[in-house]
Amino acid sequence: MNITVLGAGAFGKALGKVLTDNGHQIVYYDPYVYPDFSLDAALMDAEATIVAVPSFALPELIKDYPASAKQLHTIIATKGLTNLDLFADFPKASIISGPAFAQEILDGKGATLTASDPFVLDIFQNGQIFIELCEDAKGILLCGSLKNIYAIGAGYHSASENEVAALITRAHNETERFLRDHDADGETANYVCGLGDLILTCTSSTSRNYSCGQRLKQGEKLQDILDDLKTVEGVSALKEIDNLKRYPLLAEISTIVK
Q1: Residue 150 sits in the same domain as residue 239
Q2: Do 128 and 10 belong together in one domain?
Q3: 109 and 197 together in one domain
């Protein structure tokens, strides 16, 4: 199958590696990496697409998206989104998410991911990658966004493993409540896209969100951290959260970020 991966960053390349291993033909689109290769050209022969651009880049991408390509299977791998509004006219949009650092996948190490459509399982699953299915696309999306916020808090408290363990427990419980409040299934928090990704992101110094929290604790200014790390999805995701008073841990982290 001809598959276009939108976004040639580390995670896009990692997903492309798995698809190539499974015998698919991959084309990458990324104006920062391949400035002379247009979106139309990248999508010309596509039979499916993988969206792996940072969340802040999605509005610009969708603005120029060909109408015909919207009818293809579109697998959203971007984390940091709190809704699927941008993909409202993509009838075959689905989600893939979970605890998977790009470099480990590129190195051939195994991972389990959650997906909302059996099509994702068909093209991705192999001896390295296991796909668990969950029909709650919105819940999968929200888990991928919330864990980034919580990772900032974990990084901030990283000097104490006791505090990080307590934070992860609170974060998991709060995620379940947040999902139920936002017309998703609270049980989705128990899939790897929820608890698994939460644990990984809240305990690894290679996570940008975790590193952001650590540096905030050390007294660095948020803007300086953002200028350095470029992408800290938890910061932008936090701005999308309404009614913070209902979610005490999210409210605590918002005071850290401010």
Answers
A1: yes
A2: yes
A3: no
Q: Are 112 and 106 in contact, with CB atoms under 8 Å apart?
A: no
- Residue 217 falls in the annotated catalytic set: no
pLDDT above 90: residue 230: no
* pLDDT 10s digits, 85-131: 999 999 999 999 999 999 999 999 999 999 999 999 999 999 999 99
For residues 225 and 129, membership in a common domain is answered with: no
Is 136 within 8 Å of 168 (Cβ atoms)? no
The enclosing H or E element of 237 equals helix 233-238
Among the options 13, 79, 138, 147, which is catalytic?
147
Last residue of a domain, one of 103, 133, 163: 133
Average pLDDT, the chain: 95
Per the DSSP assignment, residues forming a β-bridge with 51 are 6, 76
CB-CB contact of 252 with 153 (8 Å): yes
The residue segments making up the domain with residue 151 are 137-257
In the 8-state DSSP scheme, what is residue 31?
T
